[in-house]
Amino acid sequence: MNRKNLEFIQILLVIVSMTFAIRASNNMIMTTIPLLSKYYFHFSQTEVGIISATLSLGTFITSGIINSRLKSPIRRKFFILSSIAYAVILPIFFFVNSETIWLVSILAGISLGAIMPNIINSAGLLEDRKARERVLSIYTLALSASLVAGPAIETGILTMFSIPYVFLFFAPLGIIAAILSFFIKFPEENNQSKNKVQVFKNPGFKTAVLNILAYNIPFSVILTFGGIYAIEYLHVSYAGATGLLSTFFVTSFLARIYLSVKPPNSVMLHAYAAISMTVIGLLLILLSNNILIFTAALLILGFPHGLTYPLSIISISRTFKQEERNPANSQFFAIMMIIGVITPTIAGYIANAIGIKDLFGILIPVVLSLLAMLSKYVKYVDEAILEKSSKNTSSIVKNSKT
């Protein structure tokens, strides 16, 4: 094995390990805070939505406002400090009460906002498109693996311990992430990176955002209210509620294995398939009256969860230069967090008014309207690789003639 391949494997192992640690613990926070606030602090549905939004608000502040404006050397220091802060904050959730949970949630979100965008940047450093997209797909595969393992571990913990203890058991993952943060690679920036990047005008960015909106809106509702729905409508235990979410992430994991083995040539076809499955899954939840139908809905919804995020970051990697990807990835991640702020807040009010079950039905026309908007831009992402391929072919022909 040559030095280049060895370095590649080392970078990949660091990215995969840190991604697993951060996403498993972060997802645990997002699914456990609603249960903790609802059943320990007796929050209303509206308050459950707002506390979930608070976590995402903190992440948005860091990712969209701070991280996107920092140059690589300073951003690396900020990334390491944020990783250490996250490791400290994670076990503090064990000690919160109905008042301090608000402050600790927003601090956790602030620390996370500098972590995930920079892991994405590191995963997309390779110049070769196929190699880069394979690394990005493996990165998202690590995300899915953590989302399968996290709820499964949490389910085991809740069979023996109460909800607050979950945060203590997940605390070592924060420590691992803090250690690994020192080994994450950051891009070298040249003078061209000083130019202002037109992020929001790029069709690849618009594709990434509309694509993620079509899934993350219902996903935010599932994370916030899925466990409560299972407990109150299907009468499962706390452990059963988190266990159901682990089945959801199993099919997500399978979808990302597929993308890791076969990086997509057509983002458009995969995006259309993902949104179609999202609509089918939401319909099943709306019609579900027993745990089997609800489980089938979660299994179906897992596939678009596995497809959507990789397709969005691939869209960005295809249509932005390497030095432009930090602002693009940071703004993209910030928009994801805005979804996490707005959706649970509005969903909480709607759930109070019409019930959680009908809330899922309202999401269907929203997803279909986003599909209509996506169709205007997604074709440009597929055309981008054709143009690059054509340029490379012309260059080869020209060189052969000389």
Automatic annotation (TrEMBL):
Regions that span the bilayer: 48-66, 78-96, 102-123, 135-153, 165-187, 208-231, 237-255, 267-285, 291-311, 332-354, 360-378
Signal peptide location: none
InterPro entries per record: MFS (IPR011701), MFS_Exporter (IPR052714), MFS_trans_sf (IPR036259)
UniProt-listed CDD domains: MFS (cd06174)
Gene3D superfamilies recorded: MFS general substrate transporter like domains
Keywords: Membrane, Transmembrane, Transmembrane helix
Coiled coil segments of this chain: none
One MF annotation (Gene Ontology) recorded for this entry: transmembrane transporter activity
UniProt cross-references to Pfam families, sorted A to Z: MFS_1
Protein name: MFS transporter
Species the sequence originates in: Acidianus sulfidivorans JP7
